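Two proteins were folded this term; both appear here.
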Amino acid sequence: MTDARPILFFDSGVGGLSVLAPARALLPQAPVVYAADNAGFPYGRKSEAEIAARVPVLLGRLAERYRARLVVIACNTASTIALAPVRAALDLPVVGTVPAIKPAALLSQTRAIGVLGTDATVRQPYVDRLSAEFAGDCLVLRHGSARLVELAEARLRGEPDDVAAYRDVLQGLLGQPGGDRVDTVVLACTHFPLVADALAAVAPRPLQFVDGGAGIARRIEHLMQGQRWPDRPAPGTAVFTAPFELAEGLRTGLAAHGLSRIEWL
């Protein structure tokens, strides 16, 4: 007997697709719903209080509507602020997303790493704790960029890359004192792995870009051991929290991630 309940992935926009992709590679039979809170986008410019109040309520509605078996907060900002309230509100396993500072510190040869995230993420005490615990012997530089979120959203819609904008974002990190030592960059927003190649192309030297997508996928696989799945992969569903005119480029981009059904909350 199969179980059609989906895994629910959640982000403010399309960034969580960088988590969905490796998870689907490990669990190709799993039904998935991808929820983008475009009504609240972008989270990186909201206050901690706004995010902590919004995300648990919204995820409660989504989990109930789609009968989710597991929730993945595929958003660093929402995870660093609202993960505990979501877990308290839902009687479901909940997987969060945190900046990949530990693997970055293991990789860095120069003992200098950069953290690129949203403004809301890079100022969180959680990032302080991760840096102290796993990168205590490293210089850790941070840079918050709402512009890079917009660039990732634009790319998925099929719009051309703004090369100068990517260069400006990276300069905001590497141009800080000690930035010339950085050899490893944490992509601490799930949007950013979607444009890692564009960042690498404008980097003044080779850099290692690290994100948590693969690790999160392995965690999902571990939690889903022994679960029953449909015999055939079902089309995934993308759900948005506010109506908008769906550009053909975005529809194509979602379909490339297995999300052929589009719904509105």
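Next, the second protein.
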Amino acid sequence: MTRPTMRVCARCQRTTDEPVLVHEVHAATGPGFNVYACPECAPHYPPTTDPLDILDSAARRRPRLTLRVYKVGADGIATDVGSKAEIHAGGPNEPIPHSSAYPPCTCPRCRRASQ
């Protein structure tokens, strides 16, 4: 003989023996938990989202890198704010090019190292 599953509805706070899973709470530092509702209250909750769908939408964003050039005086204050360069990768799966500096440095020391 099995005991029926009893849960408390998160909306009306009544005990139900027909719980409906309406939300999964994920925790970064330990186990998460599930939120249940009774069959009458379950339609009032939005549909659950799949974590993999969230990751897919994040992967569609275009990766970018922002470089800011400025000079700092001896007192730690920026004295000459220079240019700002934003580098965007070409497509959603194309990473930013890997190098020691992007765009490559053109000083004589770096030119000798790359040859």
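The longest helix spans residues 51-59. The first strand starts at residue 7 and ends at 8. These notes refer to the second protein only.
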